[in-house]
Write a structure and sequence with these properties.
single chain; about 425 residues; mainly alpha; about 80% helix; globular
Length: about 425
């Protein structure tokens, strides 16, 4: 909702170049925060396993260590984003017509990344405890705030893309304060106490052991998406705007799938701690059914309403055409991505972060880079960029199914059959 609201309001009140400027930073933002998202996954797995085992002390240590890691990462990533935004956007072949606005948006956005990182870690802890309603409420409040501020800063004050970035930072700060505030006052094993915030060595090692593979995986996949974005950029600002508009719609399809994947990670972690393998299998199959059904339905809906939905972002027919082209290659095949991520989430919840990392690195990164270098030159249109996504999803899904079926990913003593 944050970035969708930004893009709709920017597209309508600033124009196609403004929309392209906001969209050009999406892949870079994902790249910058990818490491912290991996750390949040690692913390969530450790917290969920300790909760499942009813170990109050270890749950407490995990929560405090995780939040310290988030604060440190947030400071570092914000600084990296602000300092290197221009260099990265130039390297991505961002057209000169939108470079200035792209740099401005990305630098301001990155200035508030620390709030995003801390919020994600707080959410990881709450989700690990099965308390996913709180993050939803806080994000809803922040999203509404973001929309209101977008209208004030962009429409009323005419701040352009700068206003969109400032509105997002303020909204993310609000969600961060609300989530951390709840952790400070909740009466539970995962309650945070300010004076006890410190990094506990053994707990940090556990979080890193599970989270580092996911962090590396996220960063490398995000890097491959940066390369894909660079390929899109080479087709000009109109293609960038169309692709940027579609990526916001893409979020309404892919993010629920990733949420189901994170939920099954928590579910698996708790049942590993409780030594209940039968529930792990049931949880995995239920998650797969939900993921496939959702992606098929939403894919059909998006395709049938493509022109209307894209029209929310821009009235430029050429921009809409590029967005519709992306839809035709993406929407029918989201179920492949759903199966891939849900199986990876199940395995990750059992504490096995490396195998999913390797599979996702190959399918989402190495394969894509090879495609861009070898196959893409044979395409004269942007179709060669878009078709890469469903093919890489299929490759990853097949490999993940094989590992889940035949790999030894459950701890010793838990029967997978």
């Amino acid at each position: 909702m944050y970035n969708t609201a930004d893009s709709i309001i920017v597209g309508n009140f600033v124009g196609s170049n403004g929309l392209a400027a906001v969209g050009s930073g999406t892949a870079l933002i994902n790249l910058i925060i990818a490491f912290s998202q991996g750390a949040a996954v690692g913390a969530g797995v450790i917290v969920s396993q300790n909760l499942g085992a009813r170990d109050k002390q270890k749950t407490k240590l995990a929560g405090h260590t995780a939040m310290c890691i988030a604060i440190i990462l947030g400071v570092i990533l914000s600084a990296i984003g602000v300092i290197f935004s221009r260099d990265l956007l130039i390297w991505m072949k961002t057209p000169k017509s939108v470079l200035k606005d792209s740099v401005l948006y990305l630098q301001i956005y990155c200035g508030g990344l620390i709030f995003n990182v801390i919020y994600n870690m707080a959410t990881g802890i709450l989700n690990a405890a099965g308390n996913s309603k709180r993050p939803l409420i806080y994000l809803a409040i922040a999203s509404v705030t973001n929309i209101i501020l977008d209208l004030v800063f962009i429409k009323a004050l005419k701040w352009g893309v700068k206003g969109a970035a400032i509105a997002t930072d303020i909204s993310q700060a609000l969600s961060c304060v609300l989530a951390v505030g709840y952790l400070l006052r909740v009466n539970s094993d995962y309650k945070l106490i300010v004076k006890e915030l410190k990094i506990h060595g053994n707990t940090a090692k556990q979080i890193i052991r599970v989270g580092l593979p996911t962090a590396i995986q996220n960063m490398v996949i995000s890097f491959s998406n940066v390369l894909v974005q660079s390929s899109v950029n080479s087709y000009g600002a109109t293609a960038m705007a169309g692709y940027a508009a579609y990526l916001k719609i893409d979020g309404f399809n892919i993010l629920p799938v990733l949420s189901i994947s994170m939920a099954v990670t928590t579910f698996t972690g708790q049942n590993v701690g409780a030594k209940k393998p039968d529930r792990i299998k049931k949880g995995m199959w239920n998650a797969l059914i939900m993921g496939v059904v959702y992606t098929v339905i939403i894919g059909v809906v998006i395709l049938l309403t493509s022109h209307t939905v894209l029209g929310l972002f821009t009235k430029d027919n050429e921009v809409i055409t590029y967005g519709q082209l992306a839809m035709k290659y993406f929407c029918p095949f989201y179920f492949l991505l759903g199966i891939l991520n849900i199986l990876a989430g199940t395995v990750r919840g059992a504490g096995k972060g490396v195998p999913p990392m390797l599979i996702l690195l190959f399918s989402m990164c190495i394969f894509r880079i090879l495609w861009i270098k070898i196959a893409l030159p044979f395409y004269s249109t942007i179709d060669g960029v878009f078709i890469l996504y469903p093919i890489s999803w299929f490759v990853g899904m097949v490999l993940m199914i094989i590992y889940t079926k035949f790999g030894k990913w459950l701890p010793k003593g838990l029967n997978k059959s």
